Amino acid sequence: MKTPSQHVVVLGAGPAGVGAAYQLMKKGVARVTLLEQQERVGGNAGSFLLDGVYCDYGSHRLHPVALPEIMDDLRLLLGKDLLYQTRHGRILLQGRWIHFPLKPLDLFLRLPKPFALRVLADIAKKLLPKPKKSGPETFATVLERGLGRTICEEFYFPYARKLWGIDPEDLAVTTAQKRVSGSSIGKILQKVSKQIPGMKPPGAGKFYYMKRGYGQISQCLCDAAQSLGADVKFGARFTAIETVGGSVKAVRYEQGGTEFVVPATHVWSTIPISILLRGMRPEPPKEVLDAASKVAFRGMILIYLVLDQDQFSTTDAYYFPQESIPISRMSEPKNFSSATQPVGKTVLCAELPSDPGHPDWEMTDEQLGKRLLGWMEQAGLPKPVGVLKVLTRRLRQAYPVYRNGYDQHFECMDKWIGTVDGLLTLGRQGLFAHDNTHHTLEMSYAAVKCLSADGSFDHAKWAEHRKDFETHVVED
Ligand SMILES: Cc1cc2nc3c(=O)[nH]c(=O)nc-3n(C[C@H](O)[C@H](O)[C@H](O)COP(=O)(O)OP(=O)(O)OC[C@H]3O[C@@H](n4cnc5c(N)ncnc54)[C@H](O)[C@@H]3O)c2cc1C
Question: Rounded distance, CA 389 to CA 365, Å?
Fold first, then answer.
C-alpha cells in the first residue's frame, strides 16, 4: 500500500487523541505521530493498578448513548472485556442516603417531608405570573427559574461552589445548559420517571465498563492505532508548533531532557487550548494570548484508600452535594466491573475539587487520607475495616470553568486557531468543553471524516460538527 503523503501529529493520548489516531490509521489518509507527555495512555480517562485493583481517575462510566459506530469499534476491540453494568449510586440529600440516579419511590419515601413540601411550594410559585427580571442570565438565574429556590440552595448552588470553586452567580449560563441535565423541574421529573419499570428507555440506569478499568477504552484504541502503524511517543511533552506563512510545518517536543522536531502537515491538538496557544511560533497576537490567560480549568485531587476488606459496600459511587463535605464523590472501583479479585482487598477513590496553590493541594497522602476518613464519618458511612495504604493523584485540568465572559475569550482563541492552516483543536481540553468520553470520541471520529488523503480539510463540514458538539449534555 502507498504511504500517505499527509502526516498528522496528534497532541495528547486521552480518548480524543487515541480515537483520532486510530481512525486516521484505519482510514489510511495520513501517517500519525501521537505525542503524550505522560508515560501512560488515557488522560483523565485513564486507569492504573493499585494493589491489584484497577483504579480510574475518579468515577468513570461509558454511557450507553455513545454513537453506534463508536460502540461497534469498542465491541470489536474490547470483546468480552466490555461489560454492561447496572448503576448502584447513592446521594446524600438532607442527611439521608437516596438512590442515584433518583428513583420515584425512593425519593417519595426517603426525602424529609418539610423539604418535599418546600419543593412543591416552589413548583406552585412557578405557576404564578412573575415580573420580568433584569440583568444578565447566569448559572444561578437559569437554575433558580427552572428548579426553584429550595433545590438550588440545598443542592445545586453548594455543589457548584465546591466543584468549580466560584459562586453560582459568577458561572455562565453554559454551565447550566451543558452540565445540569435536570435544569428544570420538568426535566428532573422526566429523568426520575425514566427509572419507573415499564417507562425505562433502553440504557436507563445502565452503563458500559471494562474489565481492566475505564482506561482500557483508550488503551485498546491506542494499541489498535499502533498495530496499524501509528508512532506513539510517551513521555513526550509538546513544546512548540512551527508555522511558516500561516501553515503548520513542524512540532517540537521534549522527551527525556532532549528536544526533538517532527515535520507535520497537520497538528490535531487535544491538549488544553491555552497551552497550545502559548506554544505557537511565531506567537499569536497579544489579544489571543491574553484570552488564553483568562480561561481556567478546575483541578482535582484523587484520594485512594486501600482497604483490608473484600468490599466496602455494594454502592459503586456516593455523591456529596453539600459544601460541608469537601469531596464531591467517592467510588469503589471494584464494584464498577463486579471484580472479585483481589480477594480480601478493595479500594475507595474520593474526588476532592481543588487547585494548585490551595492548602489541600500541598497536603501529604497521609493528611488527605485522614481528612477523608473524617468526611466519611460525617456523612454517616461505615468505618472502613483497615486502611492499608493511602495514595493520591492530582489532575490539573479536571473541568473547564465557565466563568461569566469565558465564551468571549474562547471565541477569540478559537477564531485565531481557525486561521492557521493545518491546525485543529478538539477534545475536552481543546474545545474547552465539559464533555464525556463518548463526546470526545465523537469529535475525533468527526475530524477524521473531514480530512482527505490529499490533505484538504472540509472546514464547512467541521463547522457543522462543531454545532452538533454544542448540543452535548454531560451525563453523570
Ligand atoms: C473526575 C472525572 C470524572 C469523569 N467521569 C466521566 C464519566 O463517568 N463518563 C465519561 O464519559 N466521562 C467522564 N469524565 C470525562 C472524561 O474524563 C473526559 O471526557 C475525557 O478524559 C476527555 O478526553 P480528552 O482526550 O478530550 O482529554 P484528556 O483525557 O484530558 O486528555 C488530554 C491529554 O493531553 C495530554 N497533554 C496535555 N498537555 C500536553 C503536552 N504539553 N504535551 C503532550 N501531551 C499533553 C494529557 O496528559 C492527556 O493525556 C470525567 C472526568 C473527570 C475529571
Answer: 9
Residue 133 Cα to ligand 1 middle (Å): 38
Residue type, 95: G
- Ligand 1 pocket (Cβ < 6 Å) reads 11-17, 35-38, 43-45, 58-63, 237-238, 270-271, 275, 300, 351, 395, 398, 427-429, 435-438, 440
Cell numbers 480510574 correspond to what residue? 56
Per-residue pLDDT at 188: 61
Class of domain 7-85+211-295+403-469: alpha beta
Q: Residue 3 Cα, ligand 1 centroid: separation in angstroms?
A: 31
Query: Which pLDDT score is estimated for 181?
Result: 62
Which CATH code for domain 102-127+136-193? 1.10.3110
Task: Assess whether pLDDT exceeds 80 at residue 389.
Answer: yes
The span from the CA of 299 to the CA of 396, in Å, is 4
Compute, in angstroms, the gap from residue 297 CA to the centroid of ligand 1. Answer: 12
436-453: average pLDDT:
98
Average pLDDT on 110-124 reads: 80
Nearest CA to ligand 1 atom 2: 58
Beta bridge partners of 83: 209
Atom of ligand 1 lying closest to residue 440 CA: 26
Does the predicted TM-score (pTM) go above 0.90? yes
The answer to whether domain 299-399 has CATH 3.30.70.260 is no
End-to-end CA distance of the chain: 44
**What would the mean pLDDT of 95-115 be, rounded to a whole number?**
79
